[in-house]
């Protein structure tokens, strides 16, 4: 039996671990796609990429300074594309830092009317040795950019950028190139050059395959004419949490010797006709014991140490001749994914000799993934409630209608009575044309920074068109991300989600206001300054910087001349980007202060920075 069986349940990769740069490199840029995402996970990603942070997502979220600098370092170097209307929302207020994600998150729609469902990362890393080529990492996932703890699959391929174009990469190249055209609103200015750079390197990437595999191919459904599906084969196993009758019949027809195996969810299988299920030799579901195992325990917080639960992995395993082929990616065994190609899906297919990578029986056997599976028993779960299914469809149709509606936010200055100033802003939501939203009893909206306690019911406005006031916010709370709750009239279904909408009148100094909310004392200023001056080319220094931003005791809360002076001298000699970051910080914090807005920059550092500015001005060091 092969020693490295694919899909083995003991081989588990943490999301953060597969994003971190390979040895000898630092993060340069990246493009990611996901069906859904949550803001907390999206906030943690830049810290992982830029600061080498190894802690779990929930630990990263306890360090707003590290989150801030991770966003500052990656906002122009990272683009995340997700399905419009599929950003998760919460009832409680969310971090003001979510507003800084607006530049990098682009909501998109599938061109054929299905779901935008791919889950990939293309990451570029810059080598510390200037003579070395850029490194790329391609990650093909079944998992979304959320804290979901289902059983998922990931394929991570490292590669170097070569000279010639590699035909194998063409499907991915064309897909990444087209991503900005799918956006529901105009992308930020940095997106086009970022995509162009990534495409140029991706065309020339040469991947290192996992042990035992000899061939690699990619396929993308939903954006071109051809719709990928598995090739005819001798034997097949299908792992798909979601499935339908049409796709399962197609897959059964492709199997030429015997009947295929199927791994899915009980609630999905309960809706499949018996005649279709009879075409499969073995039908398996996740064992309840496996679902109660604690998997990636360090990815859960202390109050919610949830085990891995539910199947979300997707794979097609085939045998042909002497070979085993494993296809992983985003596509389920459904009609939109494999037959009509309405969904946008990405697949990666690896092929190797069966003697080296294993047979279907070995991969799904008791020594492999089969260890966490059990036979499906017809009748173990009742068929779905037809009324609930209908209600869910109505809510999902309303969600899609709202995502496509072209909502618009307007932002106007509002004088604050309490402070006798003009620092607050009134937000109103506008809709040019009425929407057909049938079967809803409520539709609520709120800025995500305020929470659902500040929600307004806008069902009438959506059905008639026009504008509705949604509140007065301080400048640091303004965001184009709005939370929505749609409730079906039956009470059997609802959807809570976030939409990013076009915003007019956004104050130019919002970013500065958010920064001042995060850096609100001399202590936090000094912690953040240390973070800016850290040599992030060195993983050890990066980890030290992360620890300091997280409040490690050795950072202290007093200005320490010598270490900061030494750090700045080193940056002057070898790290001009770090001094540019300090300059950026000082410019954003420069403004007259009042009793309610104390001067947070130590006077000693102001004098030190003034001396450095003189030297930098003489050298023109920051004008490059």
Please describe what this structure looks like:
The chain is an alpha+beta fold and 624 residues long. The protein contains 21 helices and 24 strands. The protein has an 8-stranded mixed beta sheet. A hairpin with a 7-residue loop joins strand 5 and strand 6 (135-141). The radius of gyration is 26 Å and the shape is globular. It starts with 14 loop residues before the first helix and ends in a 5-residue tail after the last helix. The model is unreliable at 291-308, 552-561 and 592-596 (pLDDT under 50).
Structural class: alpha+beta
Total helical elements: 21
| Strand order of the biggest β-sheet | 9-15-14-13-10-11-12-16
- Name the overall outline: globular
Q: What is the alpha-carbon Rg in Å?
A: 26 Å
Average pLDDT:
86
How helix-rich are the residues, as a percent range? Answer: 25-40%
For the terminal residues, how far apart are their CA atoms?
59 Å
Q: What fraction of the residues are assigned to beta strands by DSSP?
A: 15-25%
Give the topology, please.
Layout: H1 15-19, E1 25-34, H2 39-51, H3 57-60, H4 64-74, E2 78-83, E3 87-88, E4 105-108, E5 120-127, E6 135-141, E7 154-161, H5 170-178, H6 191-203, E8 205-207, E9 213-221, E10 235-239, H7 245-254, E11 261-263, H8 266-269, H9 274-277, E12 282-286, H10 288-291, E13 315-320, E14 323-329, H11 335-338, E15 345-353, H12 354-357, H13 360-363, E16 373-375, H14 386-403, E17 408-416, E18 421-431, E19 440-447, E20 456-457, H15 459-464, E21 466-474, E22 481-488, E23 494-500, E24 502-504, H16 510-518, H17 522-533, H18 539-549, H19 561-574, H20 576-589, H21 603-619
Parallel strand pairs: 1-2, 2-4, 10-11, 11-12, 17-24
Antiparallel strand pairs: 1-5, 3-23, 5-6, 6-7, 7-8, 9-15, 10-13, 12-16, 13-14, 14-15, 17-18, 18-21, 19-20, 19-22, 22-23
